[in-house]
Structure formats: structure tokens, C-alpha cells
Amino acid sequence: MTNDAPKELAPNFRYPESGDFPTGPEVGEMLPDFTLMDQHGRPVNFTAERAGQRALVVFHRSARW
Amino acid sequence: MQLQQNLPTFTAAGIKVFAISYDPVEVLAKFAGEFGITYPLLYDQGSVVMKRYGILNTMIRPEETEYYGLPYPGTYAVGEDGRVTEKSFFRYYRVRPSAQSMLKDMFDVDFDAGGDPHVEAAGEGVQVSAVLASDALLFMQRDPLYVRLALDPGLHIYRGPVPEGFVATEVTVTGPDGLVVDAPVTPEGHPFRVQGIPHDFEVLDGNVEIEVPISWTQPDNAPDAATHVPLEITVRYQACDEQQCFIPRTVAMHLDVPVGRLFRAMPAGAPPPPPPSGDPPKG
């Protein structure tokens, strides 16, 4: 063994330490509606755009990094 | 990008795709232009929707302006009636399901893999994938298999050789008889530093691409010639940041690679192929 190996388990400031964090609307609940600007600067309303179809809504981190 | 590749499958299944982040419109426009994104990339100004949903990452403090406003990364599947039918959230930004697995798991839709053979696996802070730089192996053709490790910012892995106590990043590829695997080529790293002092071994960070040259040496004109070559790809690494290391991980991936045909069956009545030039027949 070596004493050089990193061993200090400092909490990571950016991630939750367990799987215990909020995940928003539950299965079976209505997904709250929203209207947001898209990449073309056009407002997109979720309900209108979906027009009765199924949807995949992805919350992701920045596209910049 | 991966969603875009699979967008036709989502569209065919009657599923609309929406992506939401805190990036302003101009950033989204640039990103969409670079990667050819056609589904809506939406700007959640002030992270209003994330806050309303209760998924703003509150572990990031407002003074960390670069990162404040991020959501816990996750995905909702919504039914025709607007209700959430499935959801999937992950602790780490890089740990995310592939578009194909979302189709399968959240909508029960089978996918068209399409494109070059590739496979991916998620780990804590590290996304591991492998892609063949060709759509098929060919008899006696050497093709690079790229094994990629995408590390979250602040994380690094070790480039061998390393002293005892550290885990070098290792890629092994195995397959049936006839598969020849050459030594993996790992990019240059930079010196590992402890409190500013460089050590005599290296670390890798960011997007690490390890090239594994592979060739298929079974002639493809035998009646029982393989049409696919199953590759077993194993990646071992240990990801660390400045303070801590995660548990060393071994990621096993399976990739079925098609074998292309050099020699095609001649239709009846066609002229015989020209005699091979080169070496005379052996006695």
C-alpha cells in the first residue's frame, strides 16, 4: 500500500451524496405546462406543441460544458 | 446528439421530444447549429420551470454563477393525456440512459440502432462508450475501435504505468478466433500533481479516447463464414477528483460487429472473376 493514494472522502459540492433528491412531478401526475423560447427564439408551449401526442421531456445540464 | 440520431424513431412512435436547460437562446442556437438539432431546445430563463417542478439543484449556491440554475438531470415520459408515465433521474450529469434505452424502457418502443456499431455504459461521473470507425469489419482490414471515456469536469483517471495504490486505465477487447487485437493506444496525459508537485506518472481528463486496432482474419468466402463478430470490451479505471477517488470500476460492454463481404457470389452465367495476381500457387 502507499500513503500517496487520495483517501480523504470530502463531500462533493455538486452532487447529492445519495439517491435522495427531488425528482419533481410523480408518475400519474400531470406534467405542469410551460412556455419557453426555443433555439430559434420562438416561444414553444408544451401542450400546444405536443398536440395530444406522447412526449419525452429532458432536463439537462448546459450545452456549453 | 444521440436524441437527434434517434429522432425519427421517436417521431414514428408519435413521441415529441423537448429538451430544457438554463442556456440562453444564442447558446442553444449555436449548439443546435453545430449538432443539427431539430427538436426544441428550450431556454428556462431564471430556471423558472425547474423551480416550479422542484428539480433545481439546490446544492449549487447562487454565487456559483457558472453552475447555478442547473436541474437535477432527468427525463419525464408523458402520455397522451399529459400525465407522467415514467421518469428517470440520476445523481450525476454524465449518468444518463441512452436514447435507445429510453425508447425501450419508457415507451416500450424498439429502436433502430443505425450507423456504425457502438455501445455505451454509464458510470459515476464517467460515460464509457465504444464505437467502431467503420460500419463493418472486412477480411484482413484493420479498423480502429475507439473506446471513449467522457469524464465530468474535475475528474481524472490514471494513465499506466502507475505506482502501487493507483489503478491504471485499461482496455481489453476479446472475440472469437480470427479476431486480432493490437495494443491499445492511449493518449498522452499530463503529470499527476499532489499539492502542485508533479509525479512521474500521468493522468487523463476530459474526453479520453483510446484506440484499439482490430482486424478480422477469417476469409469471408467460406460457406460458414461469420456474418457478425461479437466483441467483449472491458474498461477498467478509477476516477478521482482533487479530494477523493471513486471505487475502481470495470465496465463490460458487448458489441456485435457485422462482417462485410469482399467476395460476392457471382450470378449464374457471369464471367469468372479474373485470376488473382501476385504470389504463384504454392506447391
Question: What can you see in these coordinates?
Answer:
The complex is a heterodimer of chains A (65) and B (283). In chain A, 8% of the residues lie in helices and 18% in strands. Chain A is mainly beta and 65 residues long. Chain A has a domain at 33-57. In chain A, β1 (35-37) and β2 (43-45) form a beta hairpin. Chain A is flat and about 35 Å long. Mean pLDDT of chain A is 76; it is low at 1-13. Chain B is mostly beta strands. Helices cover 13% and strands 35% of the residues of chain B. Chain B has helices at residues 2-5, 7-12, 25-35, 48-53, 99-107, and strands spanning 15-21, 41-43, 74-78, 84-89, 118-122, 126-132, 142-151, 156-159, 170-174, 179-181, 190-194, 197-205, 207-216, 228-237, 249-258. A 5-stranded antiparallel β-sheet of chain B has the order 5-6-7-13-10, with no helix packed on it. In chain B, β11 and β12 (197-205) form a beta hairpin. Chains A and B meet through α1 and β3 of A and β1, α3, β2, α4 and β3 of B.
